[in-house]
From TrEMBL:
<dbReference type="InterPro" id="IPR013538">
    <property type="entry name" value="ASHA1/2-like_C"/>
</dbReference>
<dbReference type="Pfam" id="PF08327">
    <property type="entry name" value="AHSA1"/>
</dbReference>
<protein>
    <submittedName>
        <fullName>SRPBCC family protein</fullName>
    </submittedName>
</protein>
<dbReference type="InterPro" id="IPR023393">
    <property type="entry name" value="START-like_dom_sf"/>
</dbReference>
<feature type="domain" description="Activator of Hsp90 ATPase homologue 1/2-like C-terminal">
    <location>
        <begin position="19"/>
        <end position="154"/>
    </location>
</feature>
<comment type="similarity">
    <text>Belongs to the AHA1 family.</text>
</comment>
Length: 164
Protein backbone atom coordinates (compact mmCIF):
# COMPACT_ATOMS: atom_id res chain seq x y z
CA UNK A 1 0.00 0.00 0.00
CA UNK A 2 1.30 3.47 -0.76
CA UNK A 3 0.46 6.90 0.62
CA UNK A 4 -2.27 7.50 -1.99
CA UNK A 5 -4.17 4.32 -1.11
CA UNK A 6 -6.97 4.60 1.42
CA UNK A 7 -7.87 2.09 4.05
CA UNK A 8 -11.18 0.30 3.70
CA UNK A 9 -13.00 -0.30 6.96
CA UNK A 10 -12.87 -3.87 8.27
CA UNK A 11 -15.98 -6.02 8.46
CA UNK A 12 -16.58 -6.90 12.11
CA UNK A 13 -19.09 -9.14 13.82
CA UNK A 14 -19.40 -10.43 17.38
CA UNK A 15 -21.69 -13.06 18.81
CA UNK A 16 -21.99 -15.33 21.80
CA UNK A 17 -22.53 -19.06 21.51
CA UNK A 18 -23.61 -21.28 24.37
CA UNK A 19 -20.81 -23.81 24.01
CA UNK A 20 -17.29 -24.13 25.43
CA UNK A 21 -14.54 -22.24 23.61
CA UNK A 22 -12.95 -25.44 22.29
CA UNK A 23 -16.22 -26.49 20.64
CA UNK A 24 -16.78 -23.05 19.10
CA UNK A 25 -13.26 -23.11 17.64
CA UNK A 26 -13.69 -26.64 16.29
CA UNK A 27 -17.10 -25.93 14.69
CA UNK A 28 -15.75 -22.80 13.01
CA UNK A 29 -12.57 -24.44 11.70
CA UNK A 30 -12.70 -28.21 11.35
CA UNK A 31 -16.50 -28.11 11.07
CA UNK A 32 -16.72 -25.29 8.51
CA UNK A 33 -18.40 -27.62 6.02
CA UNK A 34 -21.34 -28.10 8.43
CA UNK A 35 -22.38 -24.44 8.26
CA UNK A 36 -21.00 -22.95 5.03
CA UNK A 37 -23.69 -22.09 2.45
CA UNK A 38 -23.64 -24.40 -0.57
CA UNK A 39 -24.18 -21.51 -2.99
CA UNK A 40 -21.11 -19.62 -1.66
CA UNK A 41 -18.35 -21.04 -3.83
CA UNK A 42 -16.08 -19.99 -6.68
CA UNK A 43 -15.32 -23.32 -8.35
CA UNK A 44 -16.92 -24.33 -11.62
CA UNK A 45 -18.66 -27.36 -10.08
CA UNK A 46 -21.40 -27.34 -7.42
CA UNK A 47 -19.94 -27.32 -3.91
CA UNK A 48 -19.57 -30.65 -2.18
CA UNK A 49 -17.31 -29.71 0.74
CA UNK A 50 -15.45 -26.80 2.36
CA UNK A 51 -12.17 -27.70 4.06
CA UNK A 52 -9.95 -25.73 6.44
CA UNK A 53 -6.78 -27.72 7.05
CA UNK A 54 -6.10 -27.56 10.83
CA UNK A 55 -2.61 -26.04 10.91
CA UNK A 56 -0.66 -22.89 10.13
CA UNK A 57 0.01 -23.05 6.40
CA UNK A 58 -3.05 -25.24 5.80
CA UNK A 59 -5.38 -24.57 2.91
CA UNK A 60 -8.90 -23.18 2.95
CA UNK A 61 -10.53 -24.64 -0.13
CA UNK A 62 -13.63 -26.06 -1.70
CA UNK A 63 -14.14 -29.46 -3.26
CA UNK A 64 -16.62 -29.72 -6.09
CA UNK A 65 -19.02 -32.61 -6.64
CA UNK A 66 -16.64 -33.93 -9.33
CA UNK A 67 -13.71 -34.01 -6.85
CA UNK A 68 -12.05 -30.86 -8.23
CA UNK A 69 -10.51 -28.47 -5.69
CA UNK A 70 -10.44 -24.68 -5.69
CA UNK A 71 -8.34 -22.78 -3.15
CA UNK A 72 -9.76 -19.80 -1.25
CA UNK A 73 -6.79 -19.00 1.00
CA UNK A 74 -4.27 -20.20 3.56
CA UNK A 75 -4.33 -20.53 7.34
CA UNK A 76 -1.92 -17.83 8.52
CA UNK A 77 -2.24 -18.49 12.25
CA UNK A 78 -3.65 -21.60 13.91
CA UNK A 79 -3.91 -21.12 17.68
CA UNK A 80 -6.63 -23.41 19.09
CA UNK A 81 -8.87 -22.65 20.86
CA UNK A 82 -8.00 -18.94 20.90
CA UNK A 83 -7.90 -17.82 17.28
CA UNK A 84 -7.50 -18.56 13.60
CA UNK A 85 -6.34 -16.11 10.91
CA UNK A 86 -6.83 -16.90 7.22
CA UNK A 87 -5.86 -15.18 3.96
CA UNK A 88 -8.84 -14.36 1.71
CA UNK A 89 -7.33 -15.05 -1.69
CA UNK A 90 -10.44 -14.40 -3.73
CA UNK A 91 -10.24 -11.51 -6.18
CA UNK A 92 -12.84 -9.12 -7.58
CA UNK A 93 -13.78 -11.62 -10.30
CA UNK A 94 -14.50 -14.22 -7.59
CA UNK A 95 -11.51 -16.33 -8.59
CA UNK A 96 -8.50 -17.55 -6.60
CA UNK A 97 -5.71 -14.96 -6.29
CA UNK A 98 -2.36 -16.78 -5.88
CA UNK A 99 -0.47 -13.69 -4.67
CA UNK A 100 -1.17 -13.32 -0.93
CA UNK A 101 0.13 -9.74 -0.94
CA UNK A 102 -2.93 -8.83 -3.05
CA UNK A 103 -5.42 -10.37 -0.61
CA UNK A 104 -7.33 -9.51 2.53
CA UNK A 105 -7.57 -11.74 5.58
CA UNK A 106 -10.02 -12.68 8.27
CA UNK A 107 -9.40 -13.47 11.90
CA UNK A 108 -11.71 -15.14 14.37
CA UNK A 109 -11.03 -14.94 18.10
CA UNK A 110 -12.73 -17.03 20.75
CA UNK A 111 -13.10 -15.81 24.36
CA UNK A 112 -14.47 -17.99 27.16
CA UNK A 113 -17.13 -16.03 29.03
CA UNK A 114 -17.83 -19.10 31.15
CA UNK A 115 -17.06 -22.82 30.83
CA UNK A 116 -20.11 -23.16 28.54
CA UNK A 117 -20.32 -19.75 26.84
CA UNK A 118 -17.98 -18.27 24.23
CA UNK A 119 -17.77 -14.80 22.73
CA UNK A 120 -16.72 -14.98 19.07
CA UNK A 121 -15.18 -11.90 17.46
CA UNK A 122 -14.76 -11.87 13.69
CA UNK A 123 -12.81 -9.34 11.63
CA UNK A 124 -12.19 -9.34 7.86
CA UNK A 125 -9.58 -6.67 7.06
CA UNK A 126 -7.05 -5.48 4.51
CA UNK A 127 -9.47 -5.04 1.61
CA UNK A 128 -7.27 -2.30 0.16
CA UNK A 129 -4.70 -4.99 -0.74
CA UNK A 130 -7.18 -6.20 -3.40
CA UNK A 131 -6.50 -2.96 -5.29
CA UNK A 132 -9.34 -1.41 -7.29
CA UNK A 133 -11.67 -4.31 -6.40
CA UNK A 134 -11.20 -3.85 -2.64
CA UNK A 135 -14.30 -1.80 -1.93
CA UNK A 136 -16.52 -4.04 -4.06
CA UNK A 137 -15.21 -7.15 -2.27
CA UNK A 138 -15.80 -5.45 1.10
CA UNK A 139 -19.35 -4.54 0.13
CA UNK A 140 -20.08 -8.04 -1.18
CA UNK A 141 -18.82 -9.90 1.90
CA UNK A 142 -20.24 -7.57 4.56
CA UNK A 143 -23.71 -9.12 4.61
CA UNK A 144 -22.44 -12.51 3.57
CA UNK A 145 -20.28 -12.88 6.66
CA UNK A 146 -23.20 -11.90 8.90
CA UNK A 147 -25.37 -14.64 7.42
CA UNK A 148 -22.54 -17.19 7.49
CA UNK A 149 -21.76 -16.42 11.14
CA UNK A 150 -25.42 -16.87 12.02
CA UNK A 151 -25.25 -20.30 10.35
CA UNK A 152 -22.07 -21.06 12.31
CA UNK A 153 -23.81 -20.09 15.54
CA UNK A 154 -26.75 -22.35 14.73
CA UNK A 155 -24.31 -25.22 14.08
CA UNK A 156 -22.83 -24.80 17.59
CA UNK A 157 -26.17 -24.82 19.40
CA UNK A 158 -28.11 -22.02 21.19
CA UNK A 159 -26.95 -18.46 20.42
CA UNK A 160 -27.60 -14.89 21.50
CA UNK A 161 -26.36 -11.60 20.04
CA UNK A 162 -23.37 -10.06 21.80
CA UNK A 163 -23.63 -6.68 23.49
CA UNK A 164 -21.58 -4.09 21.61
Amino acid sequence: MNATDSLIAPVRHALVVEVPRERAFDVFTKGIDRWWFRDHHIGKQPLQQVVMEPRTGGRLYERGVDGSECDWGRVLTWDPPSSVRVSWQINGEWQFEPDPSRCSEFEVRFFAESPTRTRVEFEHRGFERHGAAGQAIHDAVTGGWGALLAAFATATGPVREAQA
